[in-house]
């Protein structure tokens, strides 16, 4: 009995493996083809589950029990109480009392009466004036003092020297004039001049050293 060579057996085994693999591939292809052939058989319409859902009627809504109307609907609403308006005070409804009539403007002093007042004023301050004994040589210096008076004759402010001396030698005369105005404060203005206060509340007083 003659033995086949070993190489021939290996060749036959490989041929069987190739044949078996081809058969497996063929079976897989046939199975896939069968699935494709089987697909048209499936019903094209909705599935049974879908049919059941589509055919089943929707549940009827449960009627709600009638609600009892609210008390505000059956009872007439009471009108809202408005906030009480503030009561008018007597001052708001009572007309203001009329202002007392202003006194008629006083007539101005006549020229003679005003001259009398100026003379009285100079005499009043001369009584309080104590000028220095000796006067400097040269032109005379006449201090002029501006005064502001209240209605009762008191000074409304400090007196002001209108014309300061150009020569320091006359400064004692200027100081003496200011002291005289302060020394006579307050003035006792005569009653006859009281109605004309607006005409004498501001005055300028001349001090003449030659008439001391």
Structure description:
This protein has about 210 residues and is mostly helical. It has a domain at about 110-210: Fusion Protein Consisting Of Minor Coat Protein, Glycine Rich Linker, Tola, And A His Tag, Chain: A, Domain 2. It contains seven helices and three strands; from the N terminus they run αααααββααβ. It has helices spanning about 5-40, 50-55, 70-75, 90-95, 110-125, 170-185, 195-200; strands at about 145-150, 160, 200-205. Strands 2-1-3 form a three-stranded antiparallel beta sheet. The longest helix has about 35 residues, at about 5-40. It is rod-shaped and about 175 Å long.
In short:
The protein is 39% helix and 6% strand.
Rg from C-alpha positions?
67 Å
What is the H/E string?
HHHHHEEHHE
Any idea of the CATH topology of one domain?
Fusion Protein Consisting Of Minor Coat Protein, Glycine Rich Linker, Tola, And A His Tag, Chain: A, Domain 2
- Helical residue percent? 25-40%
CATH class of one domain: Alpha Beta
Report the structural category. Answer: mainly alpha
In DSSP terms (H or I, runs of 4 or more residues), the helix count works out at 7
**What CATH architecture label of one domain applies?**
2-Layer Sandwich
State the strand order across the main sheet.
2-1-3
Regions with little confidence, pLDDT below 50 for 5+ residues: 35-56, 68-80, 83-93
Alpha carbon gap, first and last residue: 191 Å
Large-scale geometry? rod-shaped
- Overall average pLDDT: 73
Topology, number of strands: 3
Taken as a percent bin, the fraction of beta residues is 5-15%
Report the major sheet.
3 strands, antiparallel
């Amino acid at each position: 009995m003659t033995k086949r060579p070993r190489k021939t057996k290996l060749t036959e085994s490989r041929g069987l493996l190739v044949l078996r693999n081809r058969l497996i591939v063929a079976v897989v292809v046939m199975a896939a083809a069968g699935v494709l052939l089987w697909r048209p058989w499936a019903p094209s319409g909705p599935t049974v589950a879908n049919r059941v859902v589509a055919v089943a009627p929707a549940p009827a809504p449960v009627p709600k029990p009638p609600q009892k109307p609210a008390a505000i609907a059956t009872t007439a609403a009471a009108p809202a109480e408005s906030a009480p308006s503030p009561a008018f005070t007597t001052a708001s409804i009572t007309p203001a009392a009329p202002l007392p009539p202003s006194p008629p403007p006083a007539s101005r002093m006549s020229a003679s009466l005003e001259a009398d007042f100026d003379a009285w004023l100079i005499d009043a301050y001369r009584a309080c004036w104590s000028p220095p004994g000796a006067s400097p040589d040269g032109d005379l210096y006449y201090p002029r003092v501006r005064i502001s008076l209240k209605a009762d004759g008191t000074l409304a402010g400090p007196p002001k020297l209108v014309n300061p001396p150009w020569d320091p030698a006359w400064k004692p005369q200027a100081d003496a004039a200011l002291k005289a105005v302060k020394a006579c404060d307050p003035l006792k203005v005569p009653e006859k001049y009281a109605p004309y206060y607006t005409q004498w509340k501001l005055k300028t007083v001349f001090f003449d050293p030659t008439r001391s």
